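Final report, closing paragraph on structural work. Over the funding period we assembled a curated collection of sequence-structure pairs, and we close with a single example.
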Amino acid sequence: MTSPSFGAADNNRPAPGQVWWAYLGEGVGREQGGRRPVVIVADHAFLKPVETLAIVMPLTTRNREWPNHIQAVGATGVDPDSWIMTEQVRSISRLRLYKHVGSVSSDCFNAVKWWSSVFFGLPEPQ
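Its predicted structure, as stored:
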């Protein structure tokens, strides 16, 4: 199943590729926590029936130059430059999402999906 209308919101619901501000709570160890932007990485096939959760990856302004940290490119609504920490995928309650600020480009989102496939040992996305 392909995702219809990349980055398009339905009644202010999160959609794949969108950037939202979220409260992630307290992190443990190297987990990202606090108030920060996240990119929605779940597909519409998950987001439509599961109305209370979203699968996200947090953003950071620290460029560690890790290959799996993808620079957030597009009309993200985030300043300064930020990187998507693809290794920190997590499910959160949608109650943690509080402001939709933009979306990443389709090329950026494709890079995020590619890294997700690497981490989970899945075939590369088309």
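Residues 1-11 have pLDDT under 50 and may be disordered. The beta strands are 18-23, 35-40, 53-60, 69-71, 83-85, 90-93, 97-103. We thank the funder for supporting this effort.
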